[in-house]
Structure formats: C-alpha cells, structure tokens
Specification:
It is a single chain. The protein is built from 17 helices and 13 strands. By secondary structure, it is an alpha/beta fold. The protein has two domains: 15-134, Rossmann fold, CATH 3.40.50.2300; 145-408, Rossmann fold (3-Layer(aba) Sandwich), CATH 3.40.50. Strands 8-9-7-10-6-11-12-13 form an eight-stranded mixed sheet, sandwiched between helices. Strands 2-1-3-4-5 form a five-stranded parallel sheet, with helices on both faces. Strand 12 (315-321), helix 13 and strand 13 (344-347) form a beta-alpha-beta unit. The longest helix has 15 residues, at 158-172.
Length: 409
C-alpha cells in the first residue's frame, strides 16, 4: 500500500537492468514491472548477481541504471563493483541490494560511486520510491499528491464531490490545491466557482510541445488564496478527440505546481481517462445506490486493480443516498457486491446541493455546520493521512468575501 503522506513521482524514461541472486528479490522486482510509476521506464530482470552483471557488460553498453543483489562476501562485492566501474558508460548509475544493514558497508559503497544501497527485505513501492528519488532533478522539488475523482455513472455528482473535496483540502489543510476539469465539452468547475476564465485545460492539452510550469501558471484561475482551477472550455465549437497520452505531460507538471491536485475525470472509458485514473495517487469513485452504478463500479474496480497493484484501492463515495421514492440497493448489498466498503455516504439533499450549485458556492460555504461538510473533512483526512486538519474559525462574512474574491480574482 502507498504511504499517503509522501507521493512518488513517476520514474522517467530510463533503461534498467537488474541482476538478482535470490528468487524472492526477483519476485519483488517482477512486481515493480507492473507499477504505474514505472510505465515510462524499460526494465529487465536477470539472475546471477554481480558476477552476471560483470559478464553481461564486457562487450555491451550499460543501461541508465544497474541493480545488483549481493548476499555474499563483502570483499568479493567490492572487487566486482570495481570491475563493473571500468565497464560502465558515463551516466550509468548502480544500486546495490543487500541483506546486511551495515553503515560501514554503505559508506564504502557510496565512496565507490554506488548511488543507493537497499536493505532486504523491501517492498516494490519502496524500490520505486528509491529509483524515483534517484532520478529527481532536484531533491527539494515538490511532488504533489494527485487525486482523481470520477463517477461510476453519469450524473452521480462526481464533479460536485471533486470540487468540494478540493475546496476542503485547500481550506482545512491550508495548502495550495488545484482542480483540473478534464470534461472539456461539459465541465462545470467554472460554474461551480463563479469563474469564466479565457484559458484553461484545453489550452494545456493542445499545447503539449510548449507546456511548462510557467505556461501552466498562466492557465490557472484563482478562486481563493489556496485554491485554483484549470477550467474546461465547456463549449462544442470543436471536437475533443484526444490521444491516450494527451494528459500525461500536464499531470506530470501538475505534481510540481501544488501539493494537492484534484482531477475531475468525467464518466467515460477511453485511453486518456483510464490513463489518468491509473496515474493518480488516489482514486475516488462516486456512485449512487442503483444497479447500473453497482455494475459499473465493480467493472471499474476490476479494471484498475492490475494496473494499481501497489496502490490503495479506489475509495468509494456513495452519493445521493435516500432519494425520495427511488428504489435503492442497500449500502450493505452494494458493499458486498463490489467487495469494498464506502469511505463516505452522502444523503440526498436537493435543496442544499441545488443552492450551492446555483450560487456558485461550496457546501461548506452554504452551511459549515452541515453533516455533509464534515463528511468532506473526513474524506480529506483519509486521503492525505492527516488527522490534524485544522478547524477554521467560522466567519459570518466568509461566504460573501469568498464570492467577491472570485469575481475580482
């Protein structure tokens, strides 16, 4: 499972060759191959340890990264590393996996140019983190947490959940957050925050060749001191036939733009939507208590599971529960069928949500004492692993000031 407090940046497009001695290490690295953060890297796993690595590169170029497992004699390992150093191309890095937690050995390996020493036992996630940090251009560079919110069915309120979640995260954690509205033709982030920006997410998607941190900053529309949106154009003046990798660069850059990024992913199943859900650190799946939602939720969970083997399961939020005169599947039956307990249950309240939508406000601005407001706080705590979320003092003028700030921002 992932550590919610420390997201891992994707590993860049590098070549990796691993040389294992033990079968259990081979198994862990095989699990790494399927990790979503390794999608760009090209990795091969061999047996034979350091001796096999030395033999492999006598007459062959070395990859970007060589992984060597050594559980034998320390002096022999040092000799083999010295031999390997003579063969390594410029820029090749070496990581050693060992079974002895020895600070003297660690220092000696680092002195010989080894980039990292990983002590067995270790997890696939820990290994990916080590490689990610090894290839980070700047160890102080921000790696924001990406949370993707989508619906099991259209019209279940996933965008409303996404926007209120982001607002809660930014306000109660007192950290910058960004909403990325990925529903280009029909997105509602602009409406929900009383914004009508001239530029937004479509400009980013169709300008991949010149997309950088500065350009992203120009496309953001500020909603408050801590919350910004990258709004969808929400027009039908063009068709939005996107490639599978259309959002890849944007999502990668977003990790460095804010500590918290919420992707508002529309209910669809195409290459880019699936890719966005897989790339996220956490997935929130919003569903209503009916048969179509149950079927779709189970299908989505099953489809994402193999690609997110080293991550927590998508979190299910049941929304619109208890709608008058609507036959519903019980929460217990829904949970049993999808084999996942909902992390939040939000009751149907047409007046509360309708007022917020029509006013361009969040639920917490309409009624800070409402149970739904606390539900969003609990969801924020769960997703970030933070149990010390501050409770801002209630300011009766805050809703008015927030609306004025949006219109002038």
């Amino acid at each position: 499972m992932n550590d919610v407090s420390t997201p891992i940046a994707p590993v860049p497009r590098i070549s990796i060759q691993a040389f294992c001695e033990q079968a259990d290490t081979h198994g862990i690295l095989s699990n790494v191959l399927g990790d979503r953060r390794m999608a760009k890297a090209h990795m091969k796993i061999h047996m034979g340890g350091a001796a096999a690595a030395v033999e492999a590169y006598r007459d062959a170029p070395t990859p970007n990264l060589i992984i060597i497992e050594s559980s034998g004699d320390k002096r022999l390992l040092i000799e083999q590393l010295d031999m390997l150093a003579e063969m390594c191309d410029s820029g090749t890095k070496v990581v050693v996996i060992g079974r002895v937690n020895d600070i003297l050995l660690y220092r000696e390996l680092i002195a010989r140019g080894v980039s990292e020493y990983i002590v067995h036992p270790f997890t696939a996630t820990a290994f990916v983190r080590s490689v990610s940090e090894l290839y980070g251009n700047d160890t102080s560079k921000l790696v924001g947490r990406v949370i993707a919110v989508t619906g099991a069915k259209g019209g279940v309120g996933s965008s409303t959940i996404a926007h209120n979640l982001a607002w809660t995260l930014s306000r109660e954690l007192d950290q910058p957050a960004i909403i990325v509205d990925m529903d280009l033709p029909f997105g509602t982030a602009g409406l929900d925050f009383n914004q009508d920006p001239a530029q937004g997410v479509a400009d980013a998607v169709f300008a991949n060749d010149r997309l950088d941190a500065n350009y992203i900053e120009r496309l953001l529309s500020r909603c408050s001191d801590k919350l910004s949106i990258m709004a969808a154009p929400a027009t039908l003046e063009r068709l939005y036939d996107l490639n599978e990798d259309s959002y890849d660069n944007l999502i990668d850059l977003m990790r460095g733009a804010a500590p918290l990024v919420v992707l508002d992913v529309p209910h669809s199943w195409n290459g880019w939507a699936r890719r966005a859900l897989i790339a996220a650190d956490d997935v929130v799946l919003v569903a209503a208590p009916d048969l179509a939602n149950l079927r779709n939720a189970k299908n989505i969970l099953d489809a994402l599971k193999p690609a997110r083997a080293n991550d927590s399961r998508p979190r299910i939020v049941m929304n619109g529960v208890g709608m008058l005169k609507r036959p519903e599947i019980s929460i217990a039956d829904f949970t049993r069928a999808v084999e996942s307990e909902p992390v939040a249950i939000i009751s149907h309240d047409a007046k509360l949500f309708g007022t917020a939508s029509n006013n361009g406000q969040m639920i917490g601005e309409i009624d800070a004492a409402n149970k739904v407001t606390e539900t969003f706080s609990e969801l924020a705590r769960l997703l970030t692993g933070r149990h010390d979320i501050r409770k801002p003092k209630k300011n009766l003028l805050e809703p008015l000031l927030a609306r004025l700030g949006r219109k002038t921002g």
